[in-house]
Amino acid sequence: MDFQDFQKTIDPATFSTDPYAKVVPKPWGEEIHLAPETEPYMMKIIKIKAGCRLSLQAHDKKTESWTLLRGDAAVLVEDASGELIQIPLKTELGYTSRLGQRHRLVGITDCEILEASTPELGTTFRLEDDYARPDETEALRQDPNRGWKV
């Protein structure tokens, strides 16, 4: 199939030139979603307050990659032997968490981390959480309060 044949299969009415951003408050800071939830991927800026950390978590349907944009941060991540190790994040390098791999982002100073991932699907198992939040399921994602208060 050449481009002209391919182009006949595309509906230009689905094209959009509108920018997108959705701010999601979190108890440790906020996320800015840069892709609509209808896309087959997610991209977000994670803003973590100094001294705060995300839950120690693992996903059953989500893979994530991060890069540090600003500030100082670390990732606590499970290695191949099952040990949790803390790695300082560096700018212009990517760090990835695979399905089932335990991980936690940590803000050393106020920081911003770019995350690219598969969609927000399945369960986020919160193995430890400083804010006593439950596991995040697809049903819970539909709740605007998500089981916690900012």
Explain how this protein is built:
It is a single chain. Helix content is 6%, strand content 39%. The chain has a six-stranded antiparallel sheet with strand order 1-2-3-10-5-8, with no helix packed on it. By secondary structure, it is mainly β. The chain has two helices and eleven strands. β6 (73-78) and β7 form a beta hairpin.
Provide tags for this entry.
2 helices, 150 residues, single chain, 11 strands, three-stranded antiparallel beta sheet, mainly beta
List the helices and strands and how they pair.
Layout: H1 3-7, E1 22-26, E2 29-33, E3 42-48, E4 56-59, E5 64-70, E6 73-78, E7 84-88, E8 95-97, E9 103-107, E10 111-117, E11 124-128, H2 138-141
Antiparallel strand pairs: 1-2, 2-3, 3-10, 4-11, 5-8, 5-10, 6-7, 6-9
Beta-strand residue percentage? 35-45%
**How far do the termini sit from each other?**
52 Å
The portion of residues assigned to helices is under 10%
Content-based structural category: mainly beta
Low-confidence stretches: none
* Rg of Cα set: 17 Å
**DSSP helical segment count:** 2
**Count of DSSP E strands?**
11
The topology string of helices and strands comes to: HEEEEEEEEEEEH
* Shape call: globular
What can be said about this structure in brief?
The protein contains 2 helices and 11 strands, in the order H-E-E-E-E-E-E-E-E-E-E-E-H. It has 150 residues and is mostly beta strands.
